[in-house]
Amino acid sequence: MPSPRQPRTRRGARVGAVAVLAALLGALLPMTAAHAKPRTVQGGRLDWGIKSSFQSYVTGPIAKGSWNLQGGAATVGGSQFRFHSAKGSYDPDTGAFTAGFSGGVHFTGHKKGGSYALDLTISRPTVKVSGGSGTLYADMVSKEKGTGKVTSTAQVPLAKLNVSGIDMKGGSGPIALTNLPATLTSQGAKAFAGYYTAGTRLDPVSLSTDLVAGSGGADKPDGSDGKSSKKPDKKKSGADKNADKNKDRAAGRIEDAAVDWGVRRTFREYVSGTIAKGKWTLSSGAEDGGALFRFPQGKGSYDEKKRTLAADFAGAVRFTGRHGLDIRLSEVAVGVKGGEGTLYADVDGGEFRKKKAPLVTFAAAELKDLKPRDGLIAVTEAPAKLTADGAKAFGSMYKPGTAMDPVSLAVAVDDKAELPALPDLGSEPAPKKAASDGKPKTSAKKESADSEDSDGSSKALPITLAAVAALLVAAAFAFLFERRRRAARAASAGSAGSAGGAGSAGGDGGDASDGPGTPTG
């Protein structure tokens, strides 16, 4: 006779199996779907025309004004300004995103005497996205329309950004947001000097930023951010260090140097525009900073007493395009004397060829004394004017004395001094087809199952889900097999009972069709 304890044992086993599977699902899923660590935004660009009609108004026949770029900002396309060197944070779990950019634009117009009635500067734009809403902030300096009152406000909430329909969660980088519709806020209207009312549609905003794990550059072996680094400290006594310092200062030795120059914004636009349909190519170590070209590895000497400096730099740039455009500048050099600087280059421009041709002159207060500060002689965006040879170098497109792009010069006279970092534009965004519906587009690289997160967290969620699914399938097959096996036994026992009456139909302890642990009566 079957034991009465047997059904409970089997029922308990089945209940235990279900409990184990439930525990697996409950324990494994939270572990594999554990929240990703916040990431740091480091490097990237923001492209925004602010308001194209405002640009046209400023430079048109009414305001008769102009605009100029500040802090390494550049132009891109027909009417957009490019801001650079994004810094901020991103939370993959919540999608919260903050990115601040460098650079600015200064608009002036309606000149009256020696001043302008229209005087507006927009700089350091910052984009924040959280909870399904987005805002663009910026530093604003403006002269109020009518009264002339100047107001300077940091990080004004300038524009509301439409981010509806964009899933900001789960990105691992880069993050790109394209053509975000923007409208002027009430605070922005006030900071805009009263030229527009709240709710006015502004130009759409596009941005692309890189992400790194943890806090800035923590994933790099040397702990640096990759932009600049101090040279190793030499083990010397205080007396030796002072002696070397005095010796170097007397000798006027330059440890390192770089000169930044964008030639001229309108010339770059001509080269890459619809007329020349050309390009520029950098070589020999020259670097592209967006709105400027950097010529690095400066070597030479300076004399603080005589207020002179001479340095030669690496790098070359070549402009090519239609209508015979082919100009190459190389062997760039800078000389300073009497408080004025001159930028030279070897020019190969087809009709004009000259070694060490003086292209532009520039002046700045820092050039008058050439006094190092913290081991660095730095001149930032000094106004530059074209020379006679410079005019020839560019095919007489511009007259001598024409304002060219400003010159920035950094000269390290101490081996510990750091040169300013080049504008960081981040990774080049992947090309995308133009949106036909006018809706904003987003691109945020999702975590993949076969990649490893640099912060050490696992991407094993899809793999674990597959393993759990396999366990469930195996359990289902085992359950069906057991059910059929016991059904076969029950049928066999019924057949034996009708022949000899030895068995009971219910003696096997519960019909499988009634489910685990269901009494059969």
UniProtKB/TrEMBL annotation:
UniProtKB keywords: Membrane, Signal, Transmembrane, Transmembrane helix
Htaa domain sequence ranges: 44-208, 257-409
Positions of the UniProt region annotated as Disordered: 212-251, 420-458, 490-521
Signal peptide, first to last residue: 1-36
Record carries keyword Transmembrane: yes
Stretches with biased composition (Gly residues): 497-521
InterPro entries given in the database record: Htaa (IPR007331), TAT_signal (IPR006311)
Keyword set includes Transmembrane: yes
Pfam families (alphabetical): HtaA
Annotated transmembrane regions: 460-481
Ranges annotated as biased composition (Basic and acidic residues): 219-251, 430-449
Protein name: Htaa domain-containing protein
Origin species: Streptomyces alboflavus
